[in-house]
Amino acid sequence: MAHPAHDHGAHHHEGPHHEGHRHAPAGASWRTAAQATLHCLTGCAIGEVLGMVVGTAAGLHNAATVVVSIALAFVFGYALTMRGVLRAGVPLRQALKVALAADTVSIAVMELIDNTVMVGVPGAMDAGLSDALFWVSLVLSLALAFVLTTPVNRWMIGRGKGHAVVHAYH
Asked: Does 6 score more than 50 pLDDT?
């Protein structure tokens, strides 16, 4: 049954890219914040795991391994954000600025938590790559980082910062 009061032409000016990106005026939803955090976590996790694997395999000192992990987490975190923004046709320099604005705080908070846990768990950094303690500690540290970074991202998005910057390009 058709509803005569419903205006079928009301949303034609919105392209398909705007569907699902309507923000509530009162800050950001937990879902939006969780998605932004998960996006960030993906890049962080790739860099973190790669850094820990490289550092551990190369027999680097714990501090050097943490530095490599953090550097790679930022590289992959920014790269994932830039990939989406570049796909929207944004020039490289602008895409880098967007990624820096979107992810710097999120990655920093995530890495602080993640590496504090890895360094704090007795033996986790000294465990080999075949050791369950290493992987369990890494997964737990990333899970904790996700839980603690999500509210930070929600707060930032609600103020038009962080991943809110990226949504303009989706």
From this structure: no
CA distance 21 to 170: 8
Q: Is the dihedral of CA 139, 143, 145, 150 positive or negative?
A: positive
Residue 29 DSSP one-character state: -
Collapsing DSSP to helix, strand or coil, 169 comes out as coil
Does residue 99 contact residue 87 with C-beta atoms inside 8 Å? Answer: no
Name the pTM for this structure. Answer: 0.75
3-state class (DSSP) for residue 14: coil
Inter-residue contact 80 to 38 (CB < 8 Å): no
Q: What is the DSSP string of 61-94?
A: -HHHHHHHHHHHHHHHHHHHHHHHHHHTT--HHH
Helix (H) or strand (E) holding 134, with range, is helix 132-158
Distances (CA, A) of 25 to 30, 36, 105, 152, 157: 14, 18, 23, 18, 11
Which of the two residues, 162 and 151, has the higher pLDDT score?
Answer: 151
Query: What does the mean pLDDT of the chain come to?
Result: 81
Q: What is the Cα–Cα distance from 92 to 98, expressed in whole angstroms?
A: 10
